[in-house]
Amino acid sequence: MTLFIRLLPFLLIFLARSVSAETTITVTQSTTATRTLTLEYSQPVRLVQVVEDSLANISKLVSQNDIQPQPIYWSSAGLYDLSAATAVENQQQQVLHLLSNQDSNKNKPKNIQAIKALSDWITVNEFAKREAIILDFDSARLKEELNPLISGHYLFSLPTKPGYVMVLGAVEKNGKQPFRVRQNATKYLDWALPIDDSNNSFAWLIQPDGKVEHYPIAYWNNHHIDIAPGAIIYLEFQGAQENEQVLNQQVIELLKYWIR
To answer: What residue spans of the chain are helical by DSSP H?
Structure first.
């Protein structure tokens, strides 16, 4: 195995390719990072090796403002397949197209506001196909089935713990809400101000590890589900346009691929 280390801004990782490396892993702690770490292997590599090499070299990602690397929030850590970047970009553009078709009812300014805010958020954020791999270092070392061989071009995101929950969809205030321990989805949505044409029985919860859960939010189906820092709560559009079901499904699928 041969290991190379390169440093480059995050925005260049979708363009960077090695003609000689069998497997390339770009390591970052943030999509806004000015530096990323690139690990190049001459052959397929086990997940444990990638984690070990990433942790051994993570100090190279430290910015001038930090003395040492920030703690990793493993719940949000993800391995993203960059060879599928074109397909995910097409998926992103399809969602934006569906949202633009929703922006037609001039008699409902709050609907238009919610659609525009969601569209703007999707436009400025990064998405990639997230591998369904449990990133538990200790378990991967002990169980072969949790330590797969990796081959290709990947992004390995090792973010720090955020202090927010993201609330998106049919709400007036799309964006971050301060994380509160044991706070339920209904309260987060209340602060975000749901529009009239929204689902008032269920929301979707996308945990930072990519797990998707149907979250009951009405008084008659109240059931608590813990919401982790960095999670997304998505409230469906409902009752205004014919293609809302397709839109909601595609938005949820895209949000699973959000790079934190």
So the answer is: 47-57, 85-102, 109-124, 137-142, 185-192, 244-255
The label of the residue with tokens 């202090």 reads 163
Question: pTM to 2 decimals?
Answer: 0.91
Classify residue 242 as left (phi > 0), alpha (psi -120 to 50) or beta: alpha
Q: How are beta strands 149-150 and 175-178 bridged, if at all?
A: unpaired
Pick from 172, 170, 180: which is nearest to 233 by CA?
A: 170
Top CATH class of 86-126+162-255 equals: alpha beta
CA distances in angstroms from 182 to 95, 185, 202, listed in the order given: 32, 10, 18
pLDDT tens series, the chain, 260 aa: 555 555 655 555 665 555 557 899 999 988 877 788 899 999 999 999 999 999 999 888 876 666 667 899 999 999 999 999 999 999 999 999 999 988 666 678 899 999 999 999 999 999 999 999 988 888 888 998 989 999 999 999 999 999 999 999 999 999 999 999 999 999 999 999 999 999 999 999 999 999 999 999 999 998 999 999 999 999 999 976 777 899 999 999 999 999 98
Considering the chain, tell me which residue range(s) the CATH 3.10.560.10 domain(s) occupy.
86-126+162-255
